[in-house]
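Hi team,

As requested, here is the filled-out complex form for the 2-acetamido-2-deoxy-beta-D-glucopyranose run. I kept the field names the same as last time so the parser does not choke. Let me know if anything looks off before we queue the next batch.

— J.
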Amino acid sequence: MVRCLLLFVSLIILWKCSINEGKPSIIFVPGFLCSLLEIRINTTIQTKCPKSIDNQWILLWLNLRLFQPEYFLCFHEIFQLIYNETSMNFENPPGIQTRLLTNSSKSSFLNGLLWEYIGLDQFLFHFLFKHQYEDGINIRSISYDFRRGTNESLNEFCQRLKELIEITYLTNKNEKISLISHSLGGSMTLNFLNQQNEIWKEKYIHSWISLSGNLAGGIDNIQSLIQGFVSPLIPKTILQTWDFYSWRLPNSFIYGTKRILIESPKKNYSSNDFFDFLNQLGAKQLAQVYLKSSLILSTFSPPNVNTFCFFGTNISTPIKYISTSNTFHGKLSILYGSGDGELDDTNNYSCQLWNQTMDPKYQLTIKSFPYVTHVGLLSNSNLLRQIDQILFN
Ligand SMILES: *[C@@H]1O[C@H](CO)[C@@H](O)[C@H](O)[C@H]1NC(C)=O
Ligand SMILES: *[C@@H]1O[C@H](CO)[C@@H](O)[C@H](O)[C@H]1NC(C)=O
Ligand SMILES: *[C@@H]1O[C@H](CO)[C@@H](O)[C@H](O)[C@H]1NC(C)=O
Ligand SMILES: *[C@@H]1O[C@H](CO)[C@@H](O)[C@H](O)[C@H]1NC(C)=O
Ligand SMILES: *[C@@H]1O[C@H](CO)[C@@H](O)[C@H](O)[C@H]1NC(C)=O
Ligand SMILES: *[C@@H]1O[C@H](CO)[C@@H](O)[C@H](O)[C@H]1NC(C)=O
Ligand SMILES: *[C@@H]1O[C@H](CO)[C@@H](O)[C@H](O)[C@H]1NC(C)=O
Ligand SMILES: *[C@@H]1O[C@H](CO)[C@@H](O)[C@H](O)[C@H]1NC(C)=O
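And here is what came back:
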């Protein structure tokens, strides 16, 4: 009887091994606003917040309850960061602690992510049902506080991603990892790959697949800083305290000094003029942080792993803003060009450059998907077929 059981168990193990054999593990790096954040509030200090939520961990993002009238003022106090003149950094307001919802190193792929809005379940099901991936075992994800963009916050992310990759590698019989990123996750991943040495990457990384990657920053971030995000949900005063914006404005290395991105009566701004722009806008603290953080994007080296840049195109996308006011309090009009609806085509030059700069032993593929949107790419069937070819060829 015991023998039979042993035989049965080893058969199961063999079977489990064989289905995961030769399959790169997947780690997904989500984009902006796609991680869940929790918060603990001391309501003695944060007096605009109801006593009923004192000192308990509650969902901060995305928590629809906080958009209700009795929480709205509280929400605006606690979602912002506060500039510390001494450390010259943004920090949590007093009486506030934040954390990521889960430690995704031990949990299901979708946990900790705001997946509903980007069709990430379809992406997951493709690998679970078509290719027998095991949720949380060889298909995983990593969340992060998307509001942050300092060297410190990015280094902390890199540390966690490195641990997740190494653990996933070990628990899947040394199968290499394919990093699949969406949008901002692309820059998070590129920054990560830049910090790892070649030996480590050779050992652990199968490939990097960047979907809708805004590797050179995004023009539409200019509009959020001027008008807020889905205003009045997240007003500009909150966004101007997120150091995220200090490293997400279009990178001058790609967008250049000639192309005008913002017109105002007295001054036109290229990607080289964002320090002035932030000051004119009244975001003086963010301007200070910008001086440090914008260097992060401009100093990226090629990823030096097999790299696939996939993005949507041929959809009307902001390429320039025209303000009637020098301080951006007036009317703002938008000029449109080609892109994925959020990122314009220029962004693809970051990948194009690697054709010259990356070690030629690594594969580089750049492919656009006409009429596929920034978010729609994730669950696009042509895209999933491309990924299948990369992973299972
Ligand atoms: C909240 O802040 C008040 C005032 O600083 C402090 O006395 C109290 O101990 C804090 N509460 C908690 C649970 O930390
Ligand atoms: C501001 O930063 C300084 C230096 O890091 C620190 O000592 C101080 O406690 C911070 N101030 C606040 C209000 O957090
Ligand atoms: C996640 O894990 C870290 C380190 O193990 C721990 O410090 C942190 O409290 C955990 N977070 C949650 C939400 O459980
Ligand atoms: C950011 O941190 C990395 C790794 O610690 C370091 O190599 C780099 O010089 C830092 N960059 C800036 C702009 O501070
Ligand atoms: C800004 O650019 C527009 C369009 O090219 C041009 O007509 C205008 O004169 C420029 N304004 C300034 C202040 O340079
Ligand atoms: C993209 O749009 C342009 C004009 O708007 C058109 O000429 C071109 O054929 C389109 N490209 C594709 C691949 O559909
Ligand atoms: C990249 O963008 C440029 C315009 O900036 C466009 O001409 C080119 O076709 C794009 N590349 C791909 C692969 O779509
Ligand atoms: C890289 O450059 C070569 C030669 O100029 C070209 O044939 C190839 O299509 C380019 N590859 C990509 C991914 O742009």
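Two things worth flagging: The radius of gyration is 22 Å. DSSP finds 13 helices and 15 strands in the chain.

Thanks,
J.
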